[in-house]
Amino acid sequence: MAQTDTFTRWSVIASGEGGGRIASQFFDRTENPGIDDRILVMNTNRADLRNTIDRLKSKLGATEDEDVIESHALEFGSQQGAGNFFPNGAACAREDLDRIVNRITEFGTTDAFMHVATLGGGTGNGSIPYVVDQFRDGLRDLNDNNAAEEWMDSVIHAAFGVWPYYYEQPQRHFNAVCGLSRLLRTDDDEQNADMVLLASNSHLDDEDGAGDQYDSINDAIITAIDLMIGAGRETRSVIDIKDYVTIPSQMDAYHFTPAVATDLNGSVYELEYMLDQAASGTFVPMDVETTTAAYAIVRTPERMIDDGEITEPDVYQAFREWTAKHDINVAGQASLTPKRGRGSDVDVLLLLGGFDLNPLLDHSWDDFEMLGETLAGQSRGGGADLTSAQLDRIVDNLESYVERNAE
């Protein structure tokens, strides 16, 4: 059994209204393995942040002290919104980086950050790639020398980016392409986030375009994060965020999408079948056979583990057989982790990485190219601009990364 003093401590940093909507649902969980209450939601717009705080109130309870609720929320920048233009979101984060870092330090020592943003907007899409880059480059833009703490140098940065609905306006798809590129690569064409997780609203929404399914979509995202983080909190084998990021980073294939199947009957279904069920539920459009890195987390009632109904060797063997059946030559691991309660329901998470990104980008690339020439060289609203050279770097970084992983 894992020791309670050795688990990975996570903090969730969500920016923008969409990111805040996702993060607020963490407070509706009876248990957040590894996260507890280390959750910060940020926004450049006071009204949008107020909406997020109201969601927090509904999750935490009306009797919760207002100061406690607002300790999880931060307004940053002086622009009152990013105007759906991601350079403004980045400029706001640069302006208030000291305040952002100071607020994060209030959570105490953290081993890993889960950064959350929807990629179609300006605030989260602009600020999250910038903040990740700052941490990985020693917080070079800090003015307050006391803001950074030594533990921040070794934090692992995972980022969860959510693709806009396919029917949304071209500006949002332009933002999404730029956001993905900036999460993956810095201006110097170096790796940015240690791990980039992706989900697509249209792919997760059964109504595909109804636009009213955010809660169910966000619930699916939270479930995937719970399964991913829970494996490092309480596991029968050794798999955690360091395992997820080390080899894929060496392969330059560190983008992932979750694939989830929950409430499977472990007394009836074989493990390989469960993996197939999960693989049919990827969070973005993709060809599973293009996967180059994969991790499987099987969460089952503790009783079934104690009784030997599902064992670590069973999980390893099923994972090997599943990858062989799909002709997937992957770097990866499998993990068995317990959950509380009786019954026989099993949850499965596949983290599929290094896959061909073109099926996702195909939904946005025309809009991106159409707006690229118009927006390059412009400043909008808050005064931040997007130069032609910056846009060229964004395109070159993404295209070279995608080409390497499509070979």
Automatic annotation (TrEMBL):
Pfam families: Tubulin (PF00091)
InterPro entries in the cross-refs: Tubulin/FtsZ_GTPase_sf (IPR036525), Tubulin_FtsZ_GTPase (IPR003008)
Start and end residues of each Tubulin/FtsZ GTPase domain: 12-204
Name this polypeptide is given: Tubulin/FtsZ GTPase domain-containing protein
